[in-house]
Amino acid sequence: MIGTLYFLALLSSTMAWGRVGLWGGGSERNGTEGVGGSQCTCDAFLPSSTFPVKDLVVMEQAAVEISHKLELEMGKLETYETKLTAYAEKIITLTAEIEKMEKNPDSYTEAHLEEVKVEIKQVEALIVELQASIQGSTTVFASLRVQITIMVETLTKLEKTYDKNLVLVTRREYIKIQLQLEECERRHQELFNPNIGSCAHTGIIKISKPIVSQLNAHLNAGYKFGGWGKDSKPVPDRESMYWYSGYTSGSIVDIRFYTNYKNLILRNHYQHHNLHSSWYGTGNNFLIRDNSLYYQFNNPFSMAKLNFTTLKYEYRVVAKASTSFSYAHSPNQNFDFAADETGLWVTYATEESSGRLVIAKINEPSFGIEEEWQTSVYKPGVSNAFMVCGVLYAVRTVDIQTEEIFYKFDTKTKQESYISVLFERFQESYTNLDYNPTDQKLYMYNDGYYVNYHLWFNHTAKAIEESPSLLI
């Protein structure tokens, strides 16, 4: 029952009250800007219900605040421990010095005695300060204990007051709303992305605000490594499928599949594949394409592929690829797989390129490298990268809230350029950023959260004339 109540709290923390609607025109509501400055917003509103979801929202917010306070106090405890160790060493040193003075009082001058007295006074003052700090933390812990006790009592009351049937009804209402949200999202896609699959544009010109789905399937912020998204070339009857894989370290040992977005949110996976232990991977820039997992394999260091239809594993060594160069904030990101309208790609750095990014096109049937392009961008200075219509876009961190697409390389023309397209990060760090050509979205795994972004392209008359519509 507690699990169901927590589920409802998570739900309500991302939704307002009322109904689902598609908003147009020059509204000031939060949303995505369309042609001519109009906006379209998908808003989910819970219907009126006797179930006290608002109370659960308050409890969830209180739980977050308590967690933050505990983290701060635990940090203080570590500081106290360091200070205590230093003070103890000072006291031992002073004690030894005083013993020497007692044995040979004539060997010390009046000035020396005064110096020792000052040191003793300083240690006394430090101890008084530490005692006051510890007392302050004790008060905070007592307050947190009271808050937690109240939360437990409230949850117990909810369990006794609202029976299982009412909770199930509320859960069904949520599912109905989620389906309405999916329809709203589909209409949004039709309105803002009428050219999905087309490369008749000259590149990305804008990125939406982050769209946060929820915390990962483990409901644990400790699962900071991993990825999520959709198959970039789905097989029949799996077009609506989503996948997720997350870990507490940079490894790849399993993957979960969900039939649609609703089941991803409800954490109802229909397939859970555990990789064979001899085929475990590492790094976080893996993806799913044509019902196959492409990822980094370390023994030997190579590209790896697992076909979920045939359950066949295979790998390919890329002779020049180096393990010495990773992205700025993520270890072991040596191979970065990407998929776009033109096929499958992988990027890496080599000793020969002095750490600069190399783009390689993968021949999907043979799982071999077809062609390579050398860029001038240094991989350790890049946060992540992705491909759109045969163009590499490199991203770097601007500040704690902002990322910037700052560089692009066109494999068709072999031309590179520096650009500036800023977008907001939800949390501080992320490990996976990939473009999906089936919906023209960016998918980010951001400190354990599912996040995605809408993209806007420069659809010009010249671009439409020069570039055919492609959808592989």
Percent strand: 25-35%
Estimate the mean pLDDT confidence.
80
User: What count of structural domains?
Assistant: 3
CATH domain class of the largest domain = Mainly Beta
Distance between the termini: 46 Å
Assigned CATH architecture of the largest domain: 6 Propeller
Question: What is the global morphology?
Answer: globular
Number of helices: 6
Q: If you compute it from the alpha carbons, what radius of gyration comes out, rounded to the nearest whole angstrom? A: 28 Å
Low-confidence stretches: 1-39, 43-49, 461-472
What is the structural class? alpha+beta
Might you state the CATH topology name of the largest domain? Neuraminidase
Provide the helix percentage.
Answer: 25-40%
Report the major sheet: 5 strands, antiparallel
- The total beta strand count reads 27
